[in-house]
Amino acid sequence: MNIAIIGYGTMGNLAFEQAKKRGHTICAVIDPFSSGATAKGISKESMGNAEVAIEFSAPSVAVENARKVAATGCNHIMATTGWYEHMDEMKAIIRKSGTGFLWASNFSIGVNMFFRIVSSAAKIADKVDSYDVFSYELHHNRKQDSPSGTARSIAQILIANISRKKTIVEDKLNRKIAPDELHVASIRGGDIPGTHVVAFDSTADSIELKHTARNRNGFALGSVLAAEWVKGKTGFFTIDQMMDEVLGRE
Length: 250
Hints:
38% helix, six-stranded parallel sheet
């Protein structure tokens, strides 16, 4: 199919290469700063004959970019994180346009497997209240949001499945944590592609679940697989719906 890449930084470049490997045509590369882009802005003309756009940009432009892509009639994979406070606005844009839109906090197939593993573990931990739970993540020093969208998704999974945890705390704690609070910590440094840890800890022992990305190729490949899935579809989707088809419904 014909794909447009929006945002031509590290991830946009990797999505470009993964799409080519899978036999797709890159008909547009849109980035206001990259010398490798075919256009600086999103328009009917600059998108060419793209059937799906894959976006790795910045949180501050995600909603406006979605509005512009929807106006062209093109379907959209939103791989940018950090815009989720505008979820209702994004849904309204897609509903009005009648296009297809799929978002995820992380497009790695491995991470989405990890989400489901964490969900199963949380349901077990919910029945054993001697185990406390916490989560932390590590990312490279260029990442623009903290905690990561993936860490927030993990936190929501834990809160949804462990009844004794009610509130997510993302900030530094200068006090004793309350029993119903879930602490989610972040570290930024170096060139770490992404590491996420969930721990269930008791006085007797500790259980850790960990996902470590070796590189960023998995994120890029997942975005292309999502583009293949959303082609020709109408509506507002999450990667969970795609994973239901990949893994089968529970």
